[in-house]
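Protocol step 4 of 5: obtain the predicted structure for the target chain.
Materials: sequence only (see below). No template structures provided, no constraints applied. The aim of this step is simply to have a reference model before the mutagenesis design in step 5. Sequence pasted as it appears in the construct record:
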Amino acid sequence: MNSNLFWKFLTIIGLSFLSFQVVAQSLVIDSLSRIVAGQNAVSKSQRIEAMGQLARLMVLSDRFEEAHKLLDEAKRDSWKEKDGKHEAFTYATLTYLYMQQDSLVKAVEMIDSAVWYADRTEDKKTKGFVKLREGWLDYILGDDELAYGKMLEALRLLEGEDAHEYESNIYHHLAGISARLNDPAKQLHYTRLCMDAALKSRNPDAIINSYLSMGSSYLTRYRKDNSDKSLLDSSLYYNKLLLSYADSNDERIALKSTKGIGALNIANLFLEFYPKSYRDSAEIYLVQALEIGRQVDYPEIIANSYGIRSGFAMKDGDYKKAEDLLKSAMLEISERPKTNLLVQSRISNALAEVNEKNGDPVQALAYYKDYISIYKEIFNKEKASVIQQLDARYKSEKKEIELEATKKEAQLAKKLNYIYILFILAFAFILFFVYRSYRFRLKASAQHQLLLERAKSRAELEAQLEAEKNTRLQTERELMKERMERLERELLAGTLHAEEKNRLVDGLRARLLTLDQKDPLHRQLEKIVSRNTEIDKGYKHIKSDIAEIRPEFIARLQEKSKQSLTRLDLKYCSYILMGQTNKEIAARLNVDPKSIRMARYRIKQKLNLEKAESLDQYIVELGSAVSRSVDL
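Step 4 output (C-alpha cells):
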C-alpha cells in the first residue's frame, strides 16, 4: 500500500509538534485570587500584576467575562499610578484576551495603547513584555518578518532583567518562525535557548513547553536527513521527558492538554518510523491522549488520536476500519461544544481519500462534497477574519500616522516656544549691548587706525633698512670691484716690470756663465738669480689668486654670513675656492695648520653650516654658482 496518503492525512488533520497553551491549576488561581482580594500583604504594583496573570488564566479556562471585569479593575488602579508600566502591562494582557475572543480590531487597539504607555515608563521588563506581545500579535497574523524583529527587540530590552519566563516564550516563537521559514538549524538553536531560559525560570509551564518544542525540532531535522537516527531518538526522548515531567508536576499545574499532545507525538513516531512491533506501545499512548482530549475538550487531540489509529489500519490495508475510525472521530468532534470546522474539513477530506483508495469513488465524492461545504464555511470565516485584519491594520496604521503627526506638531510647538524665548532674549541682549557695542566700535576703530599707522611706520622703517642694506652691499661690491681693478692694474705694471727685470736677469745669467765659479762675483750673481726665481713663483701665485677670485663671490659670502666674515676669513675662503689644502694655506700664510682648522670651524658657524656639512664643497658650489651668474 502507498503510505503517502496516510502522511498527507496526518498533515491534513493538523498533527502539530509545536507548543500549545497549558491550563493553570486551581491552586495557582486561588493564590492569585488571594493577592487580588488583598488577603496577602503586597504592594499595589504586585496586585495589578496579579490581576493580569489571573485574567490570563481565566482566558485559558474560557472565563472571558470574569477576565474583562478583573482587567477593568486593573486599569482603574493603574490610572492612579504615575508610572505607565501598569497601564502597559494591563493593555498588553487585554491584547491577549481579545485575540482569544477572535476580536482582532480590539486586540490591535489594545496593543497600540500598551505601546503608548510603554513609551512612558523606564521599566525595561514592562517594555520587553509589551514588545513580546506586539511581536506575538504579528506572529499570529502571519507577518513573520515583523514578528521576528520585534521578538529580538524584546530580548534586548529584557537582557539582565531576570525575566527568563518571558525570554523562554520569545525563543519559542522565534523557533516557530524558523520552522515556518523551513530553517531547521535555526529552529533547533532557538528551541535550545527556549529550554535553557525555561529551566532558569523554574516555571513548569515554560519547561514542558520547551520539551515539546525540542521534540518537534529534532523531528523536523530528521525528516530532512533520515540517515541520522540519533535525531529521531532525541525527538522521542524529549516527548517522553514531557510526559514524565507532567506526571511529576501534577500538583503544580494541570498539564493534561500538553501531555495529550506529547502522547500523540510518541504514537505518531511509532507509526511513521518504527516497525509494527511498536504498535501496542503506540496504542497505550493513543488511549492516554484520547482520554486527555475528552477531559479537556480538545478537538485536535481527539481527531489526531483517531487519525493515528486510522493510519495503522491503512498500513494493514484495512480501509474499512480506517474509514470507521475517521467516522468515529467526526461524530465525536461534532458532538463536542468546541466544534472545530477546520478539523471536520480535514477529516472529511481524509475520508474521501480513504474511500478513493478503497475503490469507492461514489462515497469518496460524497465525502469530498462535505469537505467542500465545510471548507466554504471556513473560507467565509477566514475571509471575514482577513477583512477584520485589514481593517485592524488600517486603523492601526492610521492611528500611528495620527500619533506621528501629533508628535511632530508637539515637537514643532516646543521648538517654536524655544525660538520665541530665544528671540526675546536675543532682542533684550541687543538692546542692552547696542550702546556698548557702539562705544566698543569707536574704540576699536581708533585702535585699528593706530595699528595701521604703526604698521605703516614699521613698513617704511623696514623698507629704509632694506634700502640701506642694499646700498651697503652695492657699495661693498663696487669697492671690491675697484680693489680688484686696482690689483689688476698693479699686476699689469708688475708684469711689465717683471719682464724688464727678467731681461736684466737673463743678462746677468749670461754674464754668470763667463765668470769662474770661484770668483766672489759669481756667487753674488747666482744668489741674485735664485732670489729672482723665488720672487717670480710668489708673483705667479698672487696672479693666480687674483684671477680666480671674483668680487661677486666675496659679496655672496658676506650675504650668506650676514656680513660677519672678516678679511682674513674671506682670504681663507678664497684659498679654499682655489683648492688649497690646510697645509698649503698655512705655508702660504706662514701660520700653524692648527690655526687653519680653527678658522675653518669659525667660518662654518658664521655660514650656519651643520657639523656634517663640508665647508670645501659649500664654497666650491657657491663659487660655481657665482661664476655662472656672472657669465650669463
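Step 4 remarks: Confidence is low (pLDDT under 50) at residues 1-27. DSSP finds 24 helices and two strands in the chain.
Proceed to step 5.
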